[in-house]
Design goal:
Shape: globular
Distance between the termini: 73 Å
Subcellular location: Secreted
Enzyme class: hydrolase
Protein name: Neutral ceramidase
Helix content: 10-25%
Structural class: alpha+beta
Main location: secreted
Radius of gyration: 26 Å
Catalytic activity: an N-acylsphing-4-enine + H2O = sphing-4-enine + a fatty acid
Strand content: 25-35%
Number of strands: 37
C-alpha cells in the first residue's frame, strides 16, 4: 500500500512538472505587407535604376506570440523587407496599444527584416536610406504598418495552450563569406574554434498546441537575401521568402501562398558578411577572378560580381531557398526517437534600452596589454568602401573595397555636403570618411544616432535583437558573451539566437579586427571602430539585468520625424486607355493549348497597380475548370510560378498594360484554364473605379 501511494505521489508530481514546463500560451499569425509594386525604387542595393515594374512574389510578415503562466508576453515578427525602421515599429506598437492597451510595448515587441533587396522602400525615415527611393513613400509605410500590426493581432487572437521546442541543424552550400580577407583578420585561435568562416547552423523554434498539433516554425539562418540581384525589378521575398513559401506549402496543403493556419518563417541572423551567391565573385566580362582584397577587376574585364548556383537569379533563389526549407523540414520531420529537438522550459522575460551611440563612453579589457581600454562611439559616418558596394551588388565611380586612404576630389564633394570635424576623422580611423552623416541634419537626420537594443527570453532560449547587420564573427562573439552572462547571472545554459536588422536600422557591425581592413562592411560600421565592443558591453549588461529581474533606464528615445518627411515620388495622376478598348481588355490572348514547362503570356489594358495594392488579395488569378459551373483558383500573384509585369505605354495619355506570365510547372494538373485580372483605374476627373478582365480558356495537356 505504501509503495502504491508513493507511486501515485510520484505520478502526480511528474504530471505537475509536465504542466509546469508546458505552461505557455502560443500563437502564430501572418499578414500581407506588399507595398506598391511599380514606380517605386527597391530598398537594399541603393540602385537608383532599380524601380519596381511588377510583382513576382508577395511579401509577408510572420509573427509568434508567447505568454508564460504569469502573463509575461513577447511578440516577434519576421518581415519580408530589407530591414526595420523605428518610426514603423513605433506606429505598429501604437496600433497594438489602441486595441490591447499596454499588453504590447516597445520593450516586448521585436520586428526583424529578412533583408530582401527586392521590395519597395521609403519607410525607414532616415535620409541616407530613403534617398535612392526618392524619399518617404506613405503607401509603402501604411501597407507595412497595417500588415505588421495585423500579423501580431492574428497571433494574439490565435493564442492557445501549447509547447515550444528548440532544435538546430547544419545547412551547407547555402552561403559563403563575401569578405573572407576581413574574416582572416580575426585571431587565429578564435577562428580555429569554428570549422567555417560563416555560420552554417539553422536554429528553429517549433510551436505546437497541447495536442502536439504543429502551429508554426521560425528558423534563423545567416545569409543575405540577395539571390535576386540589382537588375531585378519585380517585387520578391527572395531566398528567405521562397523557403517560407515552401515550408508553408508543406503544412498548408491545397492553400494559396500566404494562406493557411501553419506559419513558417525564415529570419535573418548575423548575415553581415554572408552571401547566398556561392559560386563566388568573378569579373563579369572576362570571367577571371577578382582581386581578393579590393573586389576589383582590371580595366575592360567588367565588374566584380558574385553569382548563385542556378542558371539565372530566379533559379539561384529557388536552389538556396530549397536548401533552407529542406533543413527546416528535416527538423520538423524527425522521428521522436531520433529527434534532436528539446522542449523549451522556463519563464518569459524581456528587456530593452535605447543607446545614444556617439555619446557612449565605457571601457573594455584588452588581453594584449592586460589593461582596461576606454571606448567611445563616433558620430555616424560612411567610409569610402561603402561606395564600392559588395560582390552581391557592386557600387559606382570606381571605388574599391579595402580603401583606407582618402582622395582630395571626393573629400571636396564630401565637405560640400557636410564636412566632418577633425574629431570625427580621428574617431573613425582608419576609415576615410566619405559621408559625415552624423553631422548632416538637412532636411532631417541622415542616419540614426540612438539605437534599439533588445533581448527576448523564452525559457532557456534568448533572442538578441540587434539593430544592424552583424558579421559572422561579430555575431559569434555576441552569442558567446550573452550565453556566458546568462550563465553567470542565472545559472542556466541558454541557446542564443541573433535576430538581425531588428527595430531600427544602423547599417553594419564588424569586429575591431575586421574594421581595420575597411571593406564594405567595415566602411558601413557607422559608429566607428568600437561599435562592436559597445554592443558587447550593452548586451552583457542587459542580459545580467534581465536575469536578475532588474529594470534599466529606458534611454533617450529616437526623434519623432514623421512630420518632416519629404518625398519626390508623385502619386498616380490618372489612367487612360486606347480608343476601342477598355480597362481589362485582353490585348494578348493565350494560345489554345500548352504543355508542361511551357510559358503562358497574356496582356491586359490596365490601370496603375498603385491605385489599389489588393492587400490580402491578388491582382490576378489562374483558374482551372472543375465542372460546367465552377472554376477553382490554382495560382495567384503570390505564387512562385507566376509573374506580373507592368508596362507604361504612353505617359502623357496614361496608357498602361499588365503582362501576366505563368510558367507551367510539372506539378500542374492537366485541364482547362483561364486567367482573370482585377484592378482599379483612376479617372482623370477624380475617383478610382474597379475593373476586371478575363482571357479565353485554354488547355494544359499532359506530356
Amino acid at each position: 500500500m505504501a509503495n502504491w501511494k508513493l507511486s501515485l505521489i510520484t505520478l502526480l508530481a511528474l504530471s505537475g512538472l509536465s504542466c509546469l514546463v508546458s505552461a505557455y500560451r502560443v500563437g502564430v499569425g501572418r499578414a500581407d505587407i506588399t507595398g506598391p509594386p511599380v514606380e517605386i525604387n527597391f530598398m537594399g542595393y541603393a540602385n537608383i535604376k532599380q524601380i519596381g515594374r511588377g510583382l513576382h512574389t508577395r511579401t509577408f510578415a510572420r509573427a509568434f506570440v508567447v505568454e508564460d503562466e504569469k502573463g509575461h508576453r513577447v511578440a516577434f515578427v519576421s518581415a519580408d523587407c530589407g530591414m526595420m525602421g523605428y518610426g514603423l515599429k513605433r506606429e505598429v506598437v501604437k496600433r497594438l496599444q489602441a486595441r490591447y492597451g499596454n499588453i504590447y510595448t516597445i520593450e516586448n515587441v521585436a520586428i526583424s527584416g529578412t533583408h530582401t533587396h527586392g521590395a519597395p522602400g521609403g519607410f525607414l525615415m532616415h535620409l541616407l536610406y530613403d534617398i535612392s527611393i526618392l524619399g518617404f513613400v506613405p503607401q509603402t509605410f501604411e501597407a507595412m504598418a497595417q500588415g505588421l500590426y495585423l500579423c501580431i493581432k492574428r497571433a494574439t487572437d490565435n493564442l492557445v495552450d501549447g509547447r515550444i521546442y528548440f532544435s538546430k541543424t547544419i545547412v551547407l552550400n547555402a552561403n559563403i563569406n563575401r569578405s573572407p580577407t576581413s574574416y582572416l583578420r580575426n585571431p587565429a585561435e578564435e577562428r580555429a574554434q569554428y570549422e567555417h568562416d560563416t555560420d552554417k547552423t539553422l536554429a528553429q523554434l517549433r510551436f505546437v498546441d497541447k495536442d502536439n498539433n504543429l502551429l508554426g516554425a521560425f528558423n534563423w539562418y545567416a545569409v543575405h537575401a540577395t539571390s535576386m540581384n540589382n537588375t531585378n525589378k519585380l517585387v520578391t521575398s527572395d531566398n528567405m521568402g521562397y523557403a517560407a513559401l515552401l515550408l508553408e506549402k508543406e503544412y498548408n496543403p491545397n492553400k494559396m501562398p500566404g494562406k493557411g493556419k501553419f506559419v513558417g518563417a525564415f529570419c535573418s541572423s548575423n548575415l553581415g558578411d554572408v552571401s547566398p551567391n556561392i559560386m563566388g565573385p568573378k569579373c563579369s566580362l572576362s570571367g577571371n577572378e577578382c582581386d581578393i582584397l579590393t573586389s576589383h577587376c582590371p580595366k575592360g574585364e567588367g565588374e566584380c560580381f558574385a553569382s548563385g548556383p542556378g542558371r539565372d537569379m530566379f533559379e539561384s533563389t529557388q536552389i538556396i531557398g530549397q536548401r533552407l526549407a529542406e533543413g527546416a523540414l528535416s527538423l520538423l520531420n524527425e522521428q521522436s526517437q531520433e529527434s534532436t529537438a528539446r522542449e523549451v522550459t522556463g519563464d518569459v522575460r524581456f528587456i530593452h534600452q535605447f543607446v545614444d551611440m556617439p555619446n557612449y563612453n565605457g571601457s573594455t579589457y584588452n588581453p594584449l596589454t592586460r589593461k582596461l581600454d576606454k571606448i567611445r562611439g563616433c558620430q555616424p559616418a560612411m567610409g569610402y568602401s561603402f561606395a564600392a558596394g559588395t560582390t552581391d551588388g557592386p557600387g559606382a565611380f570606381s571605388f574599391e573595397q579595402g580603401t583606407t586612404t582618402d582622395n582630395p576630389m571626393w573629400n571636396f564633394v564630401r565637405d560640400f555636403i557636410v564636412p566632418p570635424t577633425q574629431e570625427d576623422i580621428k574617431c573613425h580611423e582608419p576609415k576615410p570618411i566619405l559621408l559625415a552623416t552624423g553631422r548632416a541634419t538637412f532636411p532631417y537626420e541622415w542616419q540614426p544616432k540612438i539605437v534599439s537594443n533588445q533581448i527576448l527570453k523564452i525559457g532557456d532560449v534568448i533572442i538578441a535583437a540587434v539593430p544592424c547587420e552583424f558579421t559572422t564573427m561579430a555575431g559569434r562573439r555576441l552569442r558567446n558573451q550573452i550565453r556566458a552572462a546568462a550563465s553567470a547571472a542565472g545559472g542556466i545554459d541558454t541557446e542564443v539566437i541573433i535576430a538581425g536588422l531588428t527595430n531600427i536600422y544602423s547599417s553594419y557591425t564588424v569586429t575591431p579586427e575586421e574594421y581595420q581592413a575597411q571593406r564594405y562592411e567595415a566602411a558601413s560600421t557607422i559608429f566607428g571602430p568600437h561599435t562592436h565592443t559597445i554592443y558587447m558591453d550593452v548586451f552583457e549588461r542587459l542580459t545580467k539585468a534581465m536575469m536578475h529581474n532588474q529594470t534599466v533606464d529606458a534611454g533617450p528615445s529616437p526623434p519623432y520625424m514623421n512630420d518632416v518627411m519629404l518625398s519626390l515620388n508623385t502619386g498616380v495622376l490618372f489612367d487612360g486607355h486606347p480608343i476601342g478598348t477598355d480597362f481589362g481588355y485582353v490585348k494578348t490572348q493565350p494560345h489554345k493549348q500548352y504543355g508542361i514547362n511551357d510559358t503562358v503570356r497574356v496582356t491586359f489594358i490596365s490601370g496603375n497597380p498603385r491605385n489599389n495594392l489588393f492587400t490580402e488579395k491578388t491582382y490576378f488569378s489562374v483558374e482551372r475548370k472543375i465542372n460546367e459551373d465552377r472554376w477553382k483558383i490554382t495560382y495567384t500573384d503570390a505564387s512562385w510560378d507566376t509573374k506580373m509585369v507592368w508596362h507604361r505605354t504612353n505617359t502623357i495619355l496614361g496608357f498602361s498594360e499588365l503582362e501576366i506570365i505563368w510558367n507551367i510547372s510539372p506539378q500542374t494538373l492537366p485541364g482547362e484554364y483561364r486567367i482573370r485580372h482585377t484592378g482599379e483605374y483612376k479617372y482623370i476627373l477624380g475617383g478610382k473605379y474597379p475593373y476586371e478582365g478575363l482571357t479565353h480558356s485554354f488547355t494544359v495537356n499532359e506530356d
